[in-house]
Amino acid sequence: MADVGVDETLLKGVAERVAGEAAELVHEAWTGMNAGREVRVDTKSADTDVVTAVDHESERLVRARLAELRPDDAVLGEEGGGTAGDGVTWVVDPIDGTVNFLYGLPWFAVSVAAQVGGVSVAGAVVEPVSGRRWTAARGQGAFLDGRPLSVNAPSRLDLTLVGTGFAYKVERRAKQAGFVAGLATRVRDIRRNGAASLDLCAVAAGWLDAYVEHGLGQWDWAAGALIAAEAGGLVSLPGEDTELGPDATFAVAPSIAVPLRQALIDSGAGSI
């Protein structure tokens, strides 16, 4: 990655500020929705892959604030698209966990990350309902509401709690079901929470020992993967470990990384 003289601390502050403002908007909309206010819903890749008007409103707010604070930077958003720039590119997920949001389940977040050359150097994941703020900057550690984070150190594979997720397309979901069935007999248990950025943050906090999922978008992992890595996790991103599958994201506590990776391969991760 080329050194463009970025200030990771400054970028982390911008990410947290902007994600926090968007989270306030999302929380207000979620509260209104739960009180009976109608929220417009559309679909994307499948009928189960939803996007709400609030996703679009959140991303518009983030883009507007970044245009004020960092006018020379590029922005890549899940809903509005964009392309990477030569310097800093902001990667935005305006609501990660939209289905949870729509159902009233309070496990969703706004994720904002700064990348240089496709590598995350700062980021924030903010939960609208709880208000929790997960942050990290390259080489500076990871934090939850200012408290330093550190991954777990499970001693055995059968004591490992693993997070995962499923695709929207039925054909791929069927393969993932077989993969999970094979893995379930090898680990303590499996969790499927529905928001990739927060699952990666959960690894950083020791709430999960590992997380693996196929088919994530760049906005899904841009901030969360940095937070997991800065908390001491080992992270491989899509395209980096093809034995786990060409588009697998994997974050894991180092103490269990080798046997868990093998268990994932043995369970069919590479064929999903």
UniProtKB/TrEMBL annotation:
Q: What PROSITE patterns would the database entry show? A: IMP_1, IMP_2
Coiled-coil residue windows:
none
**Keyword list, A-Z:** Hydrolase, Magnesium, Metal-binding
* Protein name (Swiss-Prot/TrEMBL): Inositol-1-monophosphatase
By sequence similarity, the record places it as follows: Belongs to the inositol monophosphatase superfamily.
**Species:** Amycolatopsis speibonae
- Where on the tree of life does the source sit, at the highest rank? Bacteria
The UniProt transmembrane annotation reads none
Q: Does the keyword Mitochondrion apply?
A: no
Q: Which PANTHER family match?
A: INOSITOL MONOPHOSPHATASE, INOSITOL-1-MONOPHOSPHATASE-RELATED
Provide the catalytic activity annotation.
Answer: a myo-inositol phosphate + H2O = myo-inositol + phosphate
The terms under GO molecular function for this entry are: hydrolase activity
Q: What is its EC number?
A: 3.1.3.25
Cofactor(s) for this UniProt protein: Mg(2+)
List the lineage, top down. Answer: Bacteria, Bacillati, Actinomycetota, Actinomycetes, Pseudonocardiales
The family database entries (Pfam families) matched by this protein are listed as:
Inositol_P (PF00459)
